[in-house]
């Protein structure tokens, strides 16, 4: 069967589809775990039962997200062997370790303590119960650290050598793999991005409820907690994003040139294109709207300096890599996608900061602007979805900007794919995953909306000493 | 073969043993949702018995897969790309059952609950069956080329032997699940689980005999390692006898431990037969050997230090969480 499809394009499509879908739920779970942990902490510190109900209520969304995150995560682990067996053979010595450590250290921790947290509300005193959600939350972050250590190696290989006999990559220094500078900009950026996601989902959902004027006190307090976390997280993600930008100019200049749509060198001082029309066939910029100096400020925090364009870099790469990979390589990365993705991500960062500040002002205890300014609640509600766009575009930059390599400068995509898997198998698995994900996505949205629609009434009514059972009838199915 | 390579072959086996012991009853309980449990209240209870645990149990599988990748990437690469479609189905089954518990609890209509109950039951059944089938096919020998790539045809993995292997594992899991329910519930469910286990154990005995005969004809286990293989097969039967005794004498712990150990015994039987290979090729020269499949000594050493320092801590809280929820649930 040949429909003009190659195993490479199908395997790449599948990787994109499964990781993007998985990464809707990963940052949501990491972020919600933190938000819920903070709410429960406020409960334990202030002894105000409202915050317990808050933790339980938003915990429902967290549990949904966690369940979908877990099941889509198993696909990721299997996928390297299934679709990328030659990658696994080449990289196993380095890549397997963080994956196994992630499971041993983080997955056991989160899955065990989330079980204790879910079912332990009336079995443990408040402080011990609080420890469970923090351990779950820390588990989710440790998991991010190990998987990003693996990803960072692919972006910036360190602490390894190529075994001359086998031709495989071999780890020579675990500490170098862990200290990879790429990891220490990527990890905080991803974690802050996850906190943005969790907090703005809570804030946005609270806004939808405030539009209906139900449980106003409950949702206004939820809004306050989430917007404070959201503001801090936004400042964090932008600040680290700046570090990351300056890091990739050095380490992956091609990626950076593409995010700025540069084909020719910028010259000094460098202007920044707000929008740009790019001709990816002929590698040139048709026209663009530029702001002078800004690119230098972004890149170097200075008012002068040249930023190399892709044409120059392409030549440099050919000089550097032709001996190993041949003359026919194409080093241009998908420029349009990177350019626009970068704008979606960074502009969302600005929007989050603005919205969080306005929201906190409107929501001051002394004012009821938040209820009266309905347009703002609508904007906030729409912000529920924006973090997902920011995260996804962020990953598009990171991963597509690595083209044509799977492991930067070492292994090309074409050499990584499983040679023995047929087009038919890949086609079937793509279709199956597509259907499963569509189903899960729909159910997830329907159930989250329903949880929000039902509101926290059952929790607010229940007396404190009635046992709380997450699978119980009253707790979730609302009868 | 170095000591480290041997150690990691054993460790991968230990992780799969842990997976089958734990997820074994988990699969079994999942299957009972649409068989043993007959009312909504009973279904609530059986799901509740594994509620806090199923996710952590499944991490044993993820860890086994990760450990395989971190120690024997050649094994991981060949196995996972070779058994592509089976693994795809296993993934779908694990996904459906994984979300089913949470989603079911949120359903408002009987139809909605019914759907996710079936998802849990079928998902559990398929996962157990397909794992059994895959591991049986794996020890029988598959078409693997010199590069280590396996291109199997339908009949290579779906044949009498692998189907019997799949059924045997499913049955073992189901009984293990019944034994778990006997331990964790009271009243009618507990009594019914006991009732159902009785005839099923006789079916299991028959299945084990058929499996042993097919094992003789389909693998080189009995020619290459006659003594250890025989001991393990006998051990399987003895464990099943003990479990049966536990059923007829109503010793709940005895049944549960025996059914768990028989699942582990099957894993040990397969790993013992594999040794010193990790993948058996039809053409013996292409079989993948422990000594050629592993990572460098540096990585194996590193992983050993990490695994041995983390596992004890992890086991403490893992077991503690079972102890916390050790209470019978009434229907
Ligand atoms: C103005 C603010 C921002 C800047 C300057 C920035 C910068 C960057 C850069 C340069 C990358 C590519 C890193 C690489 O390829 O190694 C990146 C990736 C990414 N960004 Fe942003 N970003 C910003 C805002 C955000 C926001 C608001 C989110 C999400 C809420 C976000 C989420 C991500 C994610 C998930 C990735 C991929 C993972 C990674 O490489 O870190 N970013 N960002």
Detailed description of the structure:
The complex is a heterodimer of chains A (479) and B (331). In chain A, 71% of the residues lie in helices and 6% in strands. In chain A, the strands form 3 sheets. A two-stranded antiparallel sheet of chain A has the order 1-2. A two-stranded antiparallel sheet of chain A has the order 3-4. Chain A has a two-stranded antiparallel sheet with strand order 5-6. Chain A is globular and about 70 Å long. Chain A has 479 residues and is mostly helical. The relative contact order of chain A is 0.14. The mean pLDDT of chain B is 93. In chain B, 80% of the residues lie in helices and 2% in strands. With 331 residues, chain B is an all-alpha fold. The N and C termini of chain B lie far apart (54 Å). The relative contact order of chain B is 0.15. Chain B is globular. The chains are: A mainly alpha (479), B mainly alpha (331). Chains A and B meet through helix 2, helix 3, helix 15 and helix 17 of A and helix 2, helix 3, helix 4, helix 5 and helix 14 of B. Bound molecules: protoporphyrin IX containing FE (HEM). Protoporphyrin IX containing FE (HEM) is lined by residues 155, 186, 189-190, 193, 196-197, 237-238, 241-242, 244-245, 248, 255, 345-346, 348-349, 352, 387, 390-391, 394-395, 397-398, 401 of chain A.
Helix content of chain A: over 70%
**Ligands (ions, cofactors included):** protoporphyrin IX containing FE
User: What letter string, H or E per element, gives the SSE order of chain A?
Assistant: HHHHEEHHHHEEHHHHHHEEHHH
Q: What's the count of strands of chain B? A: 2
Structural class of chain A: mainly alpha
Count of helical segments of chain B? Answer: 14
Which oligomerization state do the chains in this entry correspond to? heterodimer
Overall shape of chain B? globular
Largest sheet of chain B: 2 strands, antiparallel
* Total strand segments of chain A: 6
């Amino acid at each position: 069967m040949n429909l003009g499809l190659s195993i490479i394009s199908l395997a790449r499509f599948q990787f994109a589809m499964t990781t993007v879908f998985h990464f809707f739920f990963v940052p949501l779970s990491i972020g919600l775990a933190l938000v819920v942990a903070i709410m429960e902490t406020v409960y334990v510190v202030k002894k105000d039962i409202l915050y317990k109900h808050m933790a339980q209520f938003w915990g429902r969304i967290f549990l949904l997200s966690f369940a979908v995150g877990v099941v889509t995560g198993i696909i990721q682990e299997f996928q390297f062997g299934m679709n990328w067996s030659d990658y696994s053979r080449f990289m196993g010595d380095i890549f397997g370790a963080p994956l196994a450590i992630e499971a041993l250290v983080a997955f056991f921790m989160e899955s065990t303590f989330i079980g204790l947290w879910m079912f332990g509300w009336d079995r443990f005193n408040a402080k011990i119960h609080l420890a469970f959600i923090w351990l779950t939350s820390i588990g989710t972050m440790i998991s991010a650290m190990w998987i990003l250590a693996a990803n960072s190696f692919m972006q910036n290989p360190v602490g390894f050598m190529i075994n001359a006999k086998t031709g495989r990559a071999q780890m020579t220094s675990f500490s170098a793999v862990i200290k990879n500078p790429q990891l220490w900009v990527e990890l905080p950026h991803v974690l802050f991005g996850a906190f943005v996601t969790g907090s703005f989902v809570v804030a946005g959902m609270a806004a939808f409820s405030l539009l209906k004027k139900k449980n106003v006190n409950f949702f206004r307090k939820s809004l306050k907690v989430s917007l404070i976390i959201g503001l801090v997280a936004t400042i964090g993600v932008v600040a680290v994003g700046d570090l990351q930008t300056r890091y990739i100019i050095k380490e992956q200049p091609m990626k950076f040139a593409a995010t700025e749509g540069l084909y020719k060198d910028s010259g000094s001082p460098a202007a920044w294109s707000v929008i740009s029309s790019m001709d990816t066939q002929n590698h040139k910029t048709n026209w663009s709207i530029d702001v002078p100096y800004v690119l230098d400020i972004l890149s170097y925090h200075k008012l002068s300096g040249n930023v190399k364009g892709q044409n120059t870099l392409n030549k440099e790469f050919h000089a550097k890599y032709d001996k190993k990979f041949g003359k026919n390589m194409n080093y241009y990365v998908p420029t349009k996608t990177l350019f626009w993705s970068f704008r979606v991500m960074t502009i969302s960062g600005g929007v989050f900061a603005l919205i969080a500040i306005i929201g906190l002002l409107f929501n001051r205890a002394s004012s009821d602007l938040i209820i009266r300014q309905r347009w703002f609640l609508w904007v906030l509600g729409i912000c529920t979805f924006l973090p997902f766009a920011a995260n996804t575009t962020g990953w598009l930059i990171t991963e597509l900007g690595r083209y044509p390599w799977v492991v930067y400068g070492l292994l090309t995509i074409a050499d990584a794919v499983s040679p023995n898997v047929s087009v038919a198998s890949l086609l079937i698995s793509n279709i199956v995953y597509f259907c499963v994900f569509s189903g899960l996505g729909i159910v997830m949205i329907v159930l989250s909306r329903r949880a929000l629609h039902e509101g926290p009434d059952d929790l607010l009514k229940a007396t404190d000493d009635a046992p709380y059972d997450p699978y119980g009838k009253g707790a979730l199915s609302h009868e | 073969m170095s000591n480290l390579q041997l150690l990691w072959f054993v460790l991968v086996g230990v992780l799969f043993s842990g997976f089958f012991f734990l997820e074994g009853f988990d699969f079994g309980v999942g299957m009972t949702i649409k068989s043993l449990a007959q009312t909504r209240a009973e279904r609530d209870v059986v799901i509740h018995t594994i509620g806090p645990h199923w996710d952590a149990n499944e991490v044993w599988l993820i860890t086994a897969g990760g450990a395989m990748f971190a120690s024997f990437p050649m094994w991981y690469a060949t196995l996972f790309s070779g058994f592509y479609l089976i693994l795809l189905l296993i993934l779908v089954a694990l996904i459906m059952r994984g979300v089913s518990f949470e989603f079911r609890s949120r359903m408002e209509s009987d139809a909605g609950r019914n759907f996710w109950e079936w998802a849990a039951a079928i998902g559990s059944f398929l996962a157990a069956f397909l794992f059994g089938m895959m591991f049986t096919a794996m020890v029988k020998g598959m078409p693997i080329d010199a590069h280590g790539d396996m291109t199997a045809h339908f009949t290579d993995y779906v044949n009498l032997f692998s189907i019997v292997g799949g059924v045997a594992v499913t049955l073992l899991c189901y009984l293990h699940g019944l034994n778990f329910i006997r331990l964790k519930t009271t009243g009618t469910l507990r009594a019914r689980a006991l009732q159902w286990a009785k005839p099923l154990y006789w079916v299991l005995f028959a299945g084990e005999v058929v499996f042993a005969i097919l094992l003789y004809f389909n693998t080189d286990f009995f020619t290459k390692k006659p003594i250890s293989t025989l001991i393990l097969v006998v051990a399987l039967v003895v464990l099943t006898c003990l479990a049966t005794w536990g059923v007829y004498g109503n010793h709940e712990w005895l049944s549960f431990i025996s059914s768990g150990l028989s699942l582990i015994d099957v894993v040990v039987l397969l790993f013992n037969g594999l040794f010193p290979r990790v993948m058996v090729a039809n053409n013996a020269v292409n079989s993948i050997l422990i000594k050629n499949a592993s990572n460098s000594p540096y990585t194996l050493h590193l992983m050993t230090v990490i695994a041995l320092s983390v596992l004890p801590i992890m086991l403490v809280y893992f077991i503690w969480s079972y102890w916390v929820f050790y209470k019978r649930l009434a229907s």
